[in-house]
Amino acid sequence: MHYGNIKKFSIENGAGVRVSLFVSGCRNHCGNCFSPQTWSFSYGEPFTEATEREILEALSPSHIAGLTVLGGEPFEPENQRDLLPFLRRVRQTLPEKTIWIYTGFLLDTELLGDSRGHAPETEEILGLVDVLVDGRFEEDKKNLRIRFRGSENQRIIDVPETLAAGKVVLMEEYMKERE
What is the pTM (predicted TM-score) of this model? Predict the structure, then answer.
């Protein structure tokens, strides 16, 4: 797996101050994507053990709320293979940190269904995630007044609650427009 960027102090990709990892590789190719350079699976640098250590170190201060993984597309099967052991390590090493993932795939119909986004690692990855922002960016639904999303069709999902309930549970406090 390759990554295009690591932001060690991010407030736009989830609640609190976060470390954001932008993975490379995406076949969704959403119109007006904010990072089309990450569509290429070879964009950026290889994700190595040194990269893992750098991110874990950046996550360790108490003022950092957690990790956000976006891209590119984290749920491309190639990326899932490499993300799973990394996310296990984050959860094991820093269990108090939250993990957010952004994906163009819909949780209930694509990640948990029969689609390119479903891979052998998918369910275990979802079991490690606190929040999933799902859905492809849609330019005609763009709204600058919403938090943590680019377009109104995207959902902010409480993953543990969703898995327990067997149906999508939205994080309503984040789904509202800013005043």
Answer: 0.95
